[in-house]
Write a structure and sequence with these properties.
This protein has about 550 residues and is α+β, with helices and mostly antiparallel strands. The protein has 23 helices and 13 strands. The strands form three sheets. Strands 8, 9, 10, 11, 12 and 13 form a six-stranded mixed β-sheet that branches. A five-stranded antiparallel β-sheet has the order 4-3-2-1-7, covered by helices on one side. The protein starts with a strand and ends in a 5-residue tail after the last helix.
């Protein structure tokens, strides 16, 4: 069944929520909560009704229920104050009060709509129409049949196979299936991805997995499989990414956590895996694209992002920009290439590589304006816009990042950019908390070295030089191809009296960016906040003592 209300489409079969053509990420419990409220919209449902339906009668605190309701409201553009769609009736319960149109799903496997009925493609966008056909492939396979698939394997296509419950505790099944389901939803937001729907994936549950055969049946390049095991008060999660064409293992991850709130833990597990997989898949697709004799726009896009992920030296950024430019020459409306190009321009401007760094930030803003005119709900575009705006209007930059997080709650970069914007506002004491949230979502992120630098800068401006040195060294150790933290480390070391180390840090920075100077650094003042400006004077003094060129 599909339900439409306003600009939203809620598909209970595919378990997807769409705003226009964009998928809105929702955790399984939030989806179930919306499902129950929408299906029972003719009446007021009580707190106990929701707990019985969504949590199978488990003990759920009022705070946890309120949190899930607020997340549900946010997902559909509502709020606790407006209550346009989900209304709270004090001492009675809750009711979905929005106007809903029911759209029944056609029964044949190709989902061809009746002439007078809205098609599935109208709701979910052009790519998702093939997801229904994939459901047909899985049905044939599960019934022992075979189906010939003639079209080429989709780039960045993946199936998330049901995670195995190795603990033997049947009560864990709900949690384990929730991890699988949430990963399916979150991975579908990766740029250019095609993710097999959960109903198809679950036909392989509890079956011996021949991943090459599954890849052929579903016409996907990659398969993600994993397991969850509970031992005492700890939970162990294993996941591995496999090339379904060759059977080669491309990546594996294992981590353990103490068992606390299973719902919050599920969100963290999914966000970590989704963020890591995003980077891994870009790298794998970039390697494939290198072997292509006739690369298309998306091939070039993947190669561009792979170079961005290497570091922020002039060499890497120039190479990345060339790939994005080639992609846009082939397809000038390629949103992903526009966002990638903007990210490169923002990095050039933010790292003070040329004297006209402001022009690069302006060019980045122009590319993002173009991208958002084509895809208004592109989360990464809003996030990069937040970074660009932070250098001129940090308050506006924070708002753009908050918009990005409303569209994709796993977007760790957006949390980090909020921390940077608050640093620019003179609220350096708040920066670390935002970076730690980014690291919680994506602890091995390719951008982590930048995030460490943000905290290092904040500590330097606060006068906490010992802590600044620790964070800045962590940044450099994570990725040595980023010039700015070398100069900031030099300033902190100089202020601590470690002059030999400070001078060595300056030389390492100048190897990466020979044009960096105190003059250029002074020219980039993002705000007139007193705390920020006082901190900058500390940084200038430390750089002078360390021997950074005046410029």
């Amino acid at each position: 069944m599909r339900y439409r209300f306003g600009e939203y489409a809620f598909d209970t079969d595919l378990r997807e929520l769409h705003r226009g053509t964009e998928i809105v990420s929702v955790a399984p419990q939030v989806f179930d909560l919306l499902d129950y409220l929408i299906r029972n919209r003719a009446r007021v449902v009580s707190k106990d009704d929701l707990i019985d339906a969504v949590w199978n009668g488990r003990v759920v605190s009022d705070a946890a229920l309120t949190t899930r309701l607020n997340v549900a409201r946010c997902a559909i553009g509502d709020s606790g104050e407006k209550q346009r769609l989900i209304k709270t009736l004090p001492r009675k319960g809750f009711r979905f009060v929005g106007t809903v149109q029911e759209v029944r799903r056609p029964t044949d496997a190709t989902l061809s709509a009746d002439p007078g009925e809205p098609s599935f493609q109208d709701i979910a966008g052009p790519d998702r129409s093939d997801a229904a056909a994939e459901d047909g492939f899985a049905a044939a396979a599960s019934n022992g049949g075979t189906m010939s698939i003639s079209r080429a394997t989709r780039r960045l296509s993946i199936v998330v196979l049901p995670f195995a419950n190795f603990g033997g505790d049947s009560e864990q099944d709900y949690f384990v299936d929730g991890v699988t389901e949430s990963l399916t939803t979150d991975l579908s937001r990766i740029s250019g991805s095609f993710v097999i729907g959960r109903h198809t994936a679950f036909t392989y549950k509890s079956k011996a997995a021949d991943l090459k055969r599954i890849g052929r049946e579903l016409n996907v390049r990659y398969a993600l499989e994993g397991s969850v095991q509970r031992g005492g008060n700890r939970l162990r999660v294993n996941a591995q990414l496999v090339d379904a064409e060759t059977g080669n293992h491309l990546w594996a991850e294992r981590f353990e956590k103490p068992v606390a709130d299973l719902f919050d833990m599920q969100d963290e597990i999914v966000s970590r895996l989704a963020n890591t997989l995003n980077a891994q898949l870009i790298e794998v697709e970039a390697r494939r694209a290198q072997r292509s004799t006739h690369p298309d726009a998306m091939d070039l896009y993947f190669q561009g992002w792979a170079h961005v992920n290497n570091g922020t030296t002039a060499e890497y950024l120039t190479q990345a920009q060339a790939f994005f430019d080639r992609a846009l020459a082939i397809d000038h409306d390629n949103v992903e290439a526009l966002v990638g190009s903007a990210r490169v321009k923002a990095a050039i401007g933010a790292n003070l590589m040329p004297d006209d760094w402001k022009a690069h930030l302006a060019a980045a803003a122009l590319a993002l304006t173009r991208a958002l005119s084509l895809a208004p709900d592109h989360a990464r575009a809003h996030s990069v816009l937040g970074l660009v705006q932070a250098f001129a209007d940090p308050v506006q930059g924070i708002a753009a990042c908050e918009r990005a997080l409303a569209l994709d709650h796993n977007l760790a970069d957006a949390h980090a950019f909020i921390g940077l914007a608050k640093f620019f506002l003179g609220r350096s004491a708040e920066t670390e908390a935002h970076i730690r949230e980014a690291l919680r979502l994506s602890p091995r992120d390719n951008s982590a070295y930048r995030w460490f630098m943000f905290v290092g800068l904040a500590k330097l401006f606060l006068g906490a030089d010992v802590e600044a040195v620790a964070w800045l060294r962590r940044s450099i150790e994570t990725n040595r191809n980023h010039p700015v933290p070398h100069f900031c480390l030099a300033a902190a070391l100089a202020l601590l009296g470690s002059l030999d180390e400070a001078r060595a840090a300056v030389q390492a920075g100048l190897v990466l960016n020979p044009t960096f100077s105190i003059r250029r650094y002074r020219a980039r003042a993002a705000s007139d906040s007193t705390g920020y400006l006082i901190g900058r004077e500390r940084a200038y003094e430390g750089m002078r003592i360390a021997g950074v060129p005046e410029g």
